[in-house]
């Protein structure tokens, strides 16, 4: 199967559902493990088929209609759900009119109809309405009533299995699982026997031209002006640094977009040691071969050219992970992160100290220890029996159009209107916002205040809000990844394959 994405076809072509695989911050302890905060505790996402998918059929997910609104290069040209519906309505009108009048539909008639419809419809709709009699008949003969669905399917290029076998690349050689290494989270495991020299995974890369953009600073609010002020000195680096590839003599970072981010470090320099066993790494990275024709061009570009391409939202570099020996099914896959990474990790372990009393981190409880154990408490109940400092309530919330509903005289909306169905597994859904429990109405319902928006500056009040849609989350900036001194270092690209013109010393 090929893999694509869409927002515009979400009703008609969507065939998979995305699921959050969970969050496990109990795998390490910030009080005993130097690796705390050095990897994501999110276990990623998985997808399930929402209908039967034929061999060779392209896979489509729903990104939401707004996905296109933020991409101006596509916003005016790629059709949306309403466009398919409108095009289907036009075809229905053409067919019904021809049946009533016994008019013959030909290319000229369709041209006239499209000319009239263009006055009332946008260009996206007009692109979907057939231009020829043959196109028209292919659609109306395909179905009796669901024209939008047929139009959507005919708007894509169908690939057969042979084409995929000749042109596709396997992404399913790797399966996620708990690493065999202690305190490192997830790892990559071979789903089948992988022969020496074979490609384990293609790795498309996003480039960050200047790694300084990942530095983090203290942010404070001025008491008089109420404006945010950013500190002068960096206090750390963003966690994504640990998942990206770089070179000690360059500011450029290259960040994987495939399951290769699961692959952990192994070093033969340590003779196995506490890294991965006596055999050493079983894979390596190299620049992509012919399957990505842009890589060879980008390898000759300067950093300035890469920076300009990045500003234009372009990318063009890829790695491939290659087996350096035969790998058994179920065996964990390792690459060497490089000697400088290893030295940095050893240094981090030697100087690491546990958060101490008075640091602001001692009253901390992993989210994994709260979920399913702690009872819900209103803000009044928390006065006497507070949650741990890092834990807050969170409510299922999808930002509906408030004009559809009427609040009561207090300004409260009815939660049974906004949350008509139990959303499923509360620990893995994405539509979650911080909330306060204002009052317990019954054993099944609460009055709540939900904070929403990018900065939680908006709030909405709801009554009769279902208990099943309330859970716990980490308070912002309290998770392990924000610990002072959490380990940060990019994965090294070998000097022998790193272009000289990307090194800082060679920039004019």
Second CATH tier, the architecture of the largest domain: Beta Complex
Determine the number of helices (DSSP H or I, runs of at least 4 residues).
13
CATH topology (level 3) name of the largest domain? Beta-clip-like
CATH homology-level superfamily of the largest domain = SET domain
Mean pLDDT across the residues is 86
Helix content: 10-25%
- Whole-number count of domains: 4
Q: What spatial form do the alpha-carbon principal axes imply?
A: globular
What is the secondary structure topology, with strand pairs?
Elements lengths: L15 E5 L24 E5 L16 H4 L2 H4 L5 H21 L5 H11 L5 H6 L4 H8 L6 H8 L6 H7 L6 E5 L7 E5 L8 E10 L6 E7 L6 E10 L7 E2 L6 E4 L7 E2 L17 E5 L6 H5 L4 H9 L6 E6 L10 E2 L3 H13 L27 H6 L6 E6 L16 E2 H4 L13 E9 L4 E8 L5 E9 L3 E5 L16 E2 L16
Parallel strand pairs: 8-20, 10-13, 15-18
Antiparallel strand pairs: 1-2, 3-4, 5-9, 5-12, 6-7, 8-9, 11-12, 14-16, 14-19, 16-17, 17-18
What this model shows, in words?
This protein is of the alpha+beta class and 508 residues long. The protein folds into 4 domains: 1-76, no CATH class; 80-154; 170-352, SET domain (Beta-clip-like, Beta Complex), CATH 2.170.270; 367-477, no CATH class. The chain is built from 13 helices and 20 strands. The strands form 6 sheets. Strands 11-12-5-9-8-20 form a 6-stranded mixed sheet. Strands 15-18-17-16-14-19 form a 6-stranded mixed sheet. A two-stranded antiparallel ribbon has the order 1-2. Helix 3 packs across helix 7.
